[in-house]
Amino acid sequence: MGQAFNRTTISVWFALAFIAFGYASASLAVEKESGVISHKPVFSTQQQPITGSVIAQSTTDLCLVAGGTLDYLNKGQDYDPMAIRPGIVKQFSADLDRVKRTLAFICQVSKEDNAVGRKSRLQDLNFINQHFDMIRWRPNKQQSRQFEQQKTLLKRMPDEQILLTKYYIKKAKGSPIKTAETPHALYQLPFDEQELTLEQAQTQREKLTRFQLTKQQVLTGVLDHNQWAKPLVWFSRADLEDTLMQGTVKIDGSDTFYNVHRNNGIGYQRNVPKEQQERYWYFKQTDSVLGYGKDANYKIPIKPLVTVAGDLEHLGLGKLIMLTMNNEHRLTILADTGGAFENNQYQLDYLGGYFYNWRDYHQHYKNFPDYAEARILLLKD
User: Fold this and answer.
1) In this structure, what CATH number is given to the domain that contains residue 95?
2) Dist. CA 378–CA 381, nearest whole Å
3) How many angstroms separate the Cα of 81 from the Cα of each of 12, 78, 87, 89, 313?
4) What range defines the domain where residue 203 resides?
5) Going by DSSP bridges, is the β-strand pair 36-41/257-263 parallel, antiparallel, or unpaired?
6) CA-angle at 310, arms to 306 and 316, nearest 5°
7) Which of 7, 65, 80, 195 could form a disulfide with 333 if both were Cys (CB 3.0 to 4.6 A apart)?
């Protein structure tokens, strides 16, 4: 699951002045342009109501993702302290319970509206302005600047809009056997780890197969030759790389899904092409498309067009996020993440649907904006 422009950074004495006055923890977007220094908070409360229109979308799907995310949050912070946390909203005196109430309200409204056959109130801006407080999110360009030389989209990123990349549910023509056209396997978790919990596996990193091999080593066939892991399905190199990047694959002509299970512990490198990445994911067969979960045994069911991936450690799982493009708004749930989102408060990844490859995807979304205004919505007390 997928990073901003050339500006002169402020002088050291000015940065120190901000720190001295306590602004360092406020996550300010500070820049210098045309000799004028401007600074706006990355996150700030929005008092004025929003205008425009809300995109028609499936509130049933929105409720499904909200409900699944709420179930995950209800497992408690001890289960997954990285994701199950208030996150950024804590800076605005909101707690995790308020995030949960927001998700529950989304489902309540959706079910009530569906029961009487009326247009969803979640597509009524007056209703949204009445029932939700809003936190405006602008891109943190101090974070994105280090990647701007390799990422043109980051160079062009506006001050008022975050980068909105896209990901999709991969469709692929997999084979049950190795062929000349499908020489690379998607592997199940290695046999020496099948009975271990995630926590138990972490204590045995030095001897478990999963942690010993880079992706390039796996591609040589070493797992198959030594019978260290079971191949689930065989792909072309291109389909394998897309599947590793997207995290979920649906086998064409079937209802079979495979979703990421555990990886080899090597971090994702944002400036390295996907073919050269050393991270490798092991997969597990599932019944549907799954988003975030610290382990494959419990992941959140997600749906296209209402799900975004982002920096869960900073934002906190389960935020209701309104994306605005061309004065049109859409509601999404932060229910997924990816390797590119570590320390990343300038980007979200939008789950766009089912596609065979990026060319297929881009043909469908070629006019979809690369940037969006973003607001975190919280149910009013």
Assistant:
1) 2.40.40.10
2) 9
3) 35, 6, 11, 16, 9
4) 1-381
5) unpaired
6) 95
7) 65
**Do the beta carbons of residue 280 and residue 263 sit within 8 Å?**
yes
pLDDT at site 151: 87
Give how many domains the chain has, as a whole number.
Answer: 1
* Residue 330 neighbours by CB distance under 10 Å: 20
- Indicate the pTM of the whole model: 0.81
Encoded amino acid at 212, one letter? Q
50 alpha-carbon distance from chain centroid: 25
Q: Which of the residues in the chain have pLDDT under 70?
A: 1-39
HEC string of the chain? CCCCCCCECCCHHHHHHHHHCCCHHHCEEEEEECCEEEEEECEEEECCCCCCEECCCCHHHHHHHHHHHHHHHCCCCCCCCCCCCCHHHHHHCCCHHHHHHHHHHHHHHHHHHHHHCCCCHHHCHHHHHHHEEEEEECCCHHHHHHHCCCCHHHHCCCCCCEEEEEEEEEEECCECCCCCCCCEEEEECCHHHCCCCHHHHHCCCCCCHHHCCCHHHHCCCHHHHCCCCCEEEEECHHHHHHHHHHCEEEECCCCCEEEEEEECCCCCCCCCCHHHCCCCEEEEEECCCECCCCECCECCECCCCCEEECCHHHHCCCCEEEEEECCEEEEEEEEECCHHHCCCCCEEEEEEEEECCHHHHHHHHCCCCCEEEEEEEEECC
Distance CA 257, CA 296 (A): 13
